[in-house]
Specification:
The protein is α/β, with parallel strands linked by helices and about 675 residues long. It has 18 helices and 22 strands. A 9-stranded mixed sheet has the order 20-19-22-17-16-15-1-18-21. An 8-stranded parallel barrel has the order 2-3-6-10-11-12-13-14, surrounded by 4 helices. Helix 3 packs parallel to helix 5, helix 5 crosses helix 8 and helix 12 packs parallel to helix 13.
């Protein structure tokens, strides 16, 4: 009886604690992102923060791209690694029966379905139809591609044919050549500089080949063979079209960034490199020197949010109130060192977060000059305003941190709010009007329930446009806005979408701007584009005419020279034509000793006050620099509370058992 009572006591205590924890987690996560009050916003058009790449406004080709204005589109189907460009066959993967079929070109008439590279022709046709200037093709690097039948063996992939390229490939030799594929596309559509394929991806998520296509890849890819394949394929691309950009490694998720999901193999390198990203950049740089040309133009990754709600369910597939609230904060993992995501991966690997600063640190250390791309990103909620807010916030972050290219990849068919998130930057009025191409200073005092991004066109301060976001779920928020500028602003047009509709509509104009200051009320769950009507400040111009020429500062007027970045809004991406005699290289043809280059890079990053030499594992995030309380940075409050409550419950249960035993013992003695 005693034993039974003890068991019952412990079970009751733990059950009560678990119930309490469940309520506490939901309450705490909700309260962490409660509505906040008014916010002070400052905008400074004199503070030029940098060029905004037009290619961050992109989408994956398999999405519905009607009704959205984008500048980039790329191939990204789950079957893409197995695509046979000669016959258009591909494999459905182990999760879908491993069937070889013409599924990627099934929209074409049967007699046309085996036209070489038809899947890429579909990409080019859709890009032309929707006026998308930059198009990206994914090349096959797995080593095998799908055969033209269910019983046939997988066909071999060879990167370099080293022979004449055929206008019609030989489909009977059991071999598929990648350089012949690039040559075929360049002959059909022109070089990148002439409007052809603008960039090539070195396959798609190689860390998943083993699980998706075990017949073609019976073992997990290891770091060294991935580098050798990447370098060889990139070299083949650059020999055919030196004006096309090469993107890689296109791996997905923090675990892949760390060890390409092959921890056993990674043991060989983990003492020399912080994570696989460092290794990849370092080895691709070495391969570039050996080749005499830059083989990697853009470091490309995929990031689909791994955040969970209070019930530990992935928010990417959820639309409950708690998930929506968490989703609007999820983009902070890209940049905010004070943010702790509620996900196992983020908790276990907090030293790599925030992602963009850490990725940029790796680039600066191991392959300077390489650009950064998120060719697949998704925070979920395509049909919910929270998804539109998260996507709009992510685009602002990409602009602010100099990301070169980004393509949204939704996981639902209804992506109306995600489309509006892009359109608020690229076509807010339905007539092609867009956000500026030069980012200027903006701040909101650290308010996590709002965001602000501001830009001008070229260096024209009078062309100010601002994106405002209110993440409050229930409360409006008044923004007290102050603009520092040599221009004068008297009014602004307002465009917005909100929880009521994903459609971007024009709202009441702002007409009460005085001394470049005004108040603006934002409705709950809303995204705004403010288009300011600015003019040159004549008083500033008059004052400047009294300053001697030698002391005059530049005065930006509405007629000032606009930077050449403005023309890139509709110009396809490519390596500059002036460099393609040397294959777009930014590295010398003569191989330079790696040690010297690394030494120079290390010196540039080292604090002069430090006496220790910085090692090769230097991709340190802002999170690691917080020495005040490392535990506060790595463990979410909700987790601490859960552990504390469970420990307390168990202790109380044992105290109960001890007291119960004592009382029983005393009774027995009597």
């Amino acid at each position: 009886m005693k034993k039974q009572n003890r068991i019952i006591a412990v079970i009751c205590a733990v059950s009560a604690a678990a119930a309490l924890c469940s309520e506490s987690v939901s309450a705490m996560l909700s309260s962490s992102y409660r509505d906040t009050g008014n916010v002070e916003i400052s905008i400074n058009t004199i503070d030029i923060a940098g060029r905004i790449s037009p290619y961050i406004y992109g989408i994956n080709a398999e999405s519905d791209i009607s009704g959205v204005t984008v500048n980039a589109v790329k191939q990204s189907d789950m079957r893409i690694s197995s695509y046979n460009w000669e016959t258009n066959y591909s494999n459905s993967g182990s999760g879908n029966g491993s069937e070889n079929s013409l599924a990627l070109v099934e929209s074409y008439p049967g007699e046309d379905q085996q036209t070489p590279a038809l899947y890429t022709d579909n990409l080019m046709s859709r890009a032309k139809r929707y006026g998308i200037p930059s198009k990206y093709v994914t090349l096959q690097m797995m080593g095998k591609v799908a055969p033209s039948g269910s019983g046939s063996p997988w066909e071999n992939v060879v990167f370099s044919k080293n022979d004449s390229y055929l206008t019609a490939p030989d489909t009977s030799d059991g071999t598929v050549y990648m350089d012949e594929y690039v040559s075929f596309l360049a002959n059909r559509y022109g070089y990148a500089v002439d409007g052809g394929i603008n960039g090539y991806f070195l396959d798609c998520e190689p860390e998943n080949w083993f699980t998706r296509f075990p017949e073609a890849t019976p073992e997990r890819i290891a770091a060294e063979p991935l580098i050798s394949r990447s370098a060889e394929l990139a070299d083949a691309v650059k020999r055919i079209d030196p004006t096309a950009l090469v993107y890689g490694p296109s791996i997905s998720g923090i675990d892949a960034f760390i060890n390409i999901k092959n921890p056993a193999d990674w043991e060989k390198y983990r003492n020399d490199y912080s994570w696989f990203i460092d290794y990849y950049l370092d080895k691709m740089k070495a391969a570039s020197y050996k080749s005499g040309k830059r083989l990697l133009d853009v470091l490309d990754i995929h990031y689909h949010t791994e955040a969970t709600n209070g019930l530990l369910l992935p928010i990417i597939d959820s639309n409950d109130a708690l998930s929506n609230n968490v989703r609007m904060q999820a983009p902070r993992i890209l940049w905010d060192s004070s943010y702790t995501e509620n996900s196992t991966t983020a908790i276990m690997h907090s030293q790599y977060i925030p992602l963009i600063p850490t990725l940029n640190a790796s680039i600066d250390m191991y392959y300077p000059g390489t650009k950064l791309s998120f060719s697949e990103y998704n925070f979920g909620g395509g049909d919910n305003v929270s998804g539109g807010i998260a996507a709009a916030d992510a685009l602002g972050i990409f602009a602010e941190y100099g990301v070169h290219m980004a393509c949204m990849r939704p996981n639902t068919s209804d992506i109306s709010y995600m489309k509006s998130a892009i359109n608020i930057y690229t076509n807010y009025d339905g007539n092609g009007s867009r956000f500026g191409n030069t980012l200027v200073g903006s701040a909101n005092g650290g308010d996590i329930m709002s965001s602000v991004y501001a830009a001008v066109t070229g260096r024209d301060e009078t062309s100010l446009k601002t994106v405002l976001i209110n993440k409050n779920q229930n409360s409006p928020k008044t923004a007290e806005i102050k603009i520092t500028s040599s221009a004068v602003f008297e009014s602004a047009e307002v465009y917005s979408f909100d929880g009521g509709s994903s459609e971007i509509t024009r709202r009441d104009d702002i007409s009460d701007i005085e001394n470049n200051s005004f108040s603006f009320e934002m409705e709950p769950l809303s995204v705004y584009m403010l288009v300011f009507d600015g003019r040159v400040n004549e008083d500033v111009l008059k004052e400047d005419t009294d300053i001697p020429d030698s002391e005059q500062t530049d005065v930006i007027s509405s007629e000032s020279t606009v930077s050449d970045t403005e023309t890139t809004e509709t110009t396809p991406e490519h390596v500059e034509a002036s460099t393609y005699s040397s294959a777009g290289t930014s590295v010398p043809a003569e191989e330079e000793p790696e040690d010297t280059l690394l030494s120079e890079t290390v010196t540039s990053l080292q604090d002069p006050a430090d006496e220790e030499v910085i090692g090769t594992s230097t991709a340190v995030s802002a999170a690691e620099a917080d020495e005040n309380d490392p535990e506060e940075r790595s463990v979410p409050k909700a987790v601490k509370v859960i552990v504390s409550v469970l420990v307390a419950a168990v202790v109380l249960a044992f105290i109960y058992v001890i007291i119960s035993d004592r009382i029983t013992s005393i009774k027995d003695k009597k």
